[in-house]
Write a structure and sequence with these properties.
10 helices, mainly alpha, globular
């Protein structure tokens, strides 16, 4: 059953909402536009706010639904592990040639389903960094780093949830890895800035 949950979470994560909304709603294949990334940021930049918000919400829901699956069927497997498979599915979707997004929205959805307070904190950090830097990529990476530092502090001060440390370390590392090209562009001052915040 646990293996089945992992597979199901991966399949849920693999649903490429950016591709679906782009093709069905706008006649646009986002894999061939902008950064070619099937995530909310490329959708915002290519198709506008309405499509971007839809993709962001649906991509977050993939993570939230996945992390709640073990609770719904009373499984003993840790919810965060199932959430991690949804994130992997989002980044390497079987339904889109294994070329997906950069893990940010689905990771946020996992946090929303597992620890809403940490989710709110990460969103606030993301928005703060985005406001001053105008870089979505930098805000995403700093936001993910915040989640790991928060989990670390929570464990050492209140002896809570070692699993949260492990998963936030994985998420933060994975998000930094997925943004390695963005890091190079930030260093070279060629990274595209947002104008809507």
């Amino acid at each position: 059953m646990n293996i089945g949950l992992c597979i199901l979470a991966y399949i849920i994560g693999s649903v490429p909402f950016a591709l679906v909304i782009g093709k069905w709603g706008y006649g646009v294949d986002l894999r061939k536009e902008g950064s070619g990334n099937l995530g909310a940021t490329n959708t915002f930049r290519t198709l506008g706010k309405k499509a971007g918000i839809l993709v962001m919400v649906f991509d977050m829901l993939k993570g939230t639904i996945a992390v709640l699956l073990p609770l719904l069927i009373d499984s003993s497997i840790h919810p965060l592990l199932i959430g991690a498979f949804a994130i992997i599915g989002h980044c390497y979707p079987v339904f889109a040639g294994f070329k997906g997004g950069k893990a940010v929205a689905t990771s946020a959805g996992v946090l929303l389903g597992y620890e809403p307070f940490l989710f709110i904190g990460a969103i606030l950090v993301f928005l703060l960094i985005l406001k001053f830097s105008k870089y979505v990529s930098l805000a995403s990476m700093i936001g993910s780093l915040f989640t790991f530092l928060y989990a670390l502090a929570e464990y050492f001060f209140w002896e809570k949830d070692l699993a949260l440390i492990c998963i936030t370390l994985f998420l933060s590392s994975f998000i930094f890895y997925r943004h390695r090209e963005n890091i190079s562009r930030i260093k070279n001052k060629t990274e595209r800035k947002v104008t809507w915040i």
